[in-house]
Amino acid sequence: MNLFFKHTLYLLVYAVLIINKSYSDWATVEFLQNDGSSIGIAEGADSWFLNAPAFKFDLKNLEPGIYRIALYDGKSCLDYGISAEISNPKLKSWHTSKLLIIEANQEGIFNTTLGIKPEVFNEDSRNLISISSIRGHPLLIFKINNDELIACGVVPLRN
């Protein structure tokens, strides 16, 4: 009987891992400045238990200071359009014009994992933003004190 429970537990854990993998989406976004130079990447993944994305940032060569990351509705860094919450009012609680606030240290580095979530997490706001839903759209990094565009990265489409 003990062997039966051991194998059943093994199968249940395996099933949970398979289900988790099938419902999670991930992407790597490279952030480029206007001159084409890279300031680093962000690896994003959907949280399977919250249905909201999180990003592990590895950004370098920034001026020390505070920045905001915004989601825009365009299709490229050259034509990034308008803030996603303007074109889709359902996204208002996600504050897409300032999805995340980050601070580069004195060495110009930001390497932290941050989760994105709406102001109010309920059935109306759940699943509106995920890695899958933002694929093909630009994430912009602005200096917060003067709204200067520092860098842009497009969440890649699935192959």
Q: What features would you describe in this structure?
A:
The chain is of the alpha+beta class and 159 residues long. The chain has one domain: Superoxide dismutase, copper/zinc binding domain (Immunoglobulin-like). The protein has three helices and eight strands. The chain has a four-stranded antiparallel beta sheet with strand order 1-2-3-6, with no helix packed on it. A four-stranded antiparallel beta sheet has the order 5-4-7-8, with no helix packed on it.
Task: Label this structure with key terms.
single chain, four-stranded antiparallel beta sheet, alpha+beta, 3 helices, 19% helix, Immunoglobulin-like, 159 residues, 8 strands
Structural class: alpha+beta
Kindly state the mean pLDDT as a whole number?
Answer: 87
CATH hierarchy: architecture: Sandwich
What's the domain count?
Answer: 1
Beta-strand residue percentage: 25-35%
Rg over CA atoms, rounded to whole Å, is 18 Å
Shape: globular
According to DSSP, the number of beta strands is 8
Q: What fold name goes in the CATH topology slot?
A: Immunoglobulin-like
Strand order of the largest sheet: 1-2-3-6
Helix-strand pattern? HEEEEHEEHEE
**What is the quaternary state of this protein?**
single chain
The low-pLDDT segments are none
The CATH superfamily is Superoxide dismutase, copper/zinc binding domain
Level-1 CATH class name: Mainly Beta
